[in-house]
Design goal:
about 350 residues, alpha/beta, Quinone Oxidoreductase, Chain A, domain 1, Rossmann fold, 2 domains, 12 helices, 18 strands, about 30% helix, globular, binds zinc ion
Length: about 350
């Protein structure tokens, strides 16, 4: 089968690799679409601490079930549409024992810790497979994983109907968090970024775009709220300046949600945390409940979610992955294996 293989730093190659053979408990998925995530770009950089070459990356994918190991039982049938929850937990650490395996101390993912979805076929444990309606749009279904990240971030926040929300970063997660905040009843969602293409996408989703290049985000929020500021700020940018600025966009006793992955320690405004009694809350991937909600939302309105997606043939994969960090006009790149 064809796969986009991470071979070494700065090198993804389209090549023929053996089709996976099912082990006990596994299901074989014929991949239809596979999305590119920030962590795939991190793998590409060669500095990801867990991803070891050679690796089939990709952890956001959809497809059709084509084979089921006899040990799996009868929950799945060949021909069913499906997506993959790529996370798998150790099952023995205390978060696992306390029923929150998504914050497992050694959480692993398909496409990072073992082969994932940048290939024509992927063998996945049955508990990671989520069956989808027969008529689902499989390109939209490849967005379920990042939608689940956004669902989790919003459900973990204290957002209430009528709230004003600030989002740093109009990348895929920032756009989806903004959209989920709207669906959760936010009155207005303001999204700041410096990339005009991304700001246009945010605006097409009904969010207020703010160009951070020439506009003071805190001033926009002050104006919109009579000086009260956002009830909840989501940092989906992951830059040192944004997490520092997040206190200023957030009201007294408001909440800052740390959604982006920070790969280094950054200062936050601890005096604001103190004097304004603000809270900073971490959020990591999703629970099964979030994932199910995301499946339902995407099945219900695929066109809405596809506004952030651009589809490329898988053969273009290496060039697309190389282009994104250089500022290509794309929010969520999807590779088609159909
Ligand atoms: Zn991801
Ligand atoms: Zn664990």
């Amino acid at each position: 089968m064809k796969a986009i293989v991470y071979e070494k730093a700065k090198t993804f190659t389209v090549k023929d690799v053996p089709k996976p053979v099912l082990s006990e408990g596994e299901v074989l998925i014929k991949v239809a679409y596979s999305g590119v995530c920030g962590s795939d770009l991190f793998i590409y950089s060669g500095t990801h601490p867990r991803a070891k070459a050679p690796l089939i990356a990709g952890h956001e994918y959809s497809g059709t079930i084509v084979e089921i190991h006899p040990s799996v039982g009868d929950a799945f049938k060949p021909g069913m549409k499906a997506t993959v929850r790529p996370t798998y937990a150790c099952g023995v650490c205390y978060p696992c024992r306390e029923g929150v395996p998504h914050v497992c101390k050694s959480l692993k993912l398909y496409g990072i810790d073992c082969d994932g979805g940048f290939a024509e076929y992927s063998a996945v444990r049955a508990e990671n497979v989520f069956a989808l309606p027969d008529d689902i749009d499989l390109a939209a279904a490849a967005l379920i994983e990042p939608v689940a990240v956004a669902v989790h971030a919003v459900r973990r926040s204290e957002l209430k109907a009528g709230d004003v929300v600030a989002v740093f970063g109009a990348g895929p997660i920032g756009c989806l968090v903004g959209l989920m905040a709207k669906k959760a009843g936010a009155r207005e969602v303001y999204v700041s970024d410096m990339n005009p293409y991304r700001l246009d996408a945010a605006s097409s989703l009904g969010l207020w775009p703010v160009n951070a290049k020439d506009t003071d985000f805190a001033a926009v929020l002050a104006e919109a709220t009579d000086g009260r500021m956002a009830d909840v700020t989501f940092d989906c940018a992951g830059a040192g300046q944004t997490i520092m600025a997040a206190s200023a966009t957030t009201r007294v006793r408001g909440q800052v949600m740390v959604v982006a992955s920070f790969h280094a320690p950054y200062p936050i405004d601890l005096l604001a945390v103190n004097f304004k009694e603000q809270q900073f809350t971490g959020t990591r991937v999703y629970t099964d409940a979030d994932f199910k909600i995301a499946c339902g939302m995407v099945a219900e309105d695929p066109a809405l979610f596809k506004k952030i997606a651009t589809v490329y043939p898988y053969a273009d994969g290496p060039a697309v992955i190389d282009g994104i960090p250089k500022g290509a006009d794309v929010i969520k790149a999807l590779f088609s294996f159909e």
